[in-house]
Design brief:
Length: 52
């Protein structure tokens, strides 16, 4: 009984670690996307200023 309980606890801990890793990856992707949008907007402003 004790081995089975430890195995279940181990599986639950591994699942939680995997899910937290996914959350960090998704958060990082959101930050990267926001940075890309900001860089694109800045480049557009520079082009507009250069055209004037």
């Amino acid at each position: 009984m004790k081995t089975k309980t430890l195995a279940v606890i181990g599986v639950v801990l591994m699942a939680l670690a995997t899910l937290s890793s996914c959350g960090n990856t998704i958060r990082g992707m959101g930050q990267d996307t926001a940075n890309a949008v900001n860089a694109t907007e800045d480049a557009g402003r520079r082009v507009a200023r250069a055209a004037n």
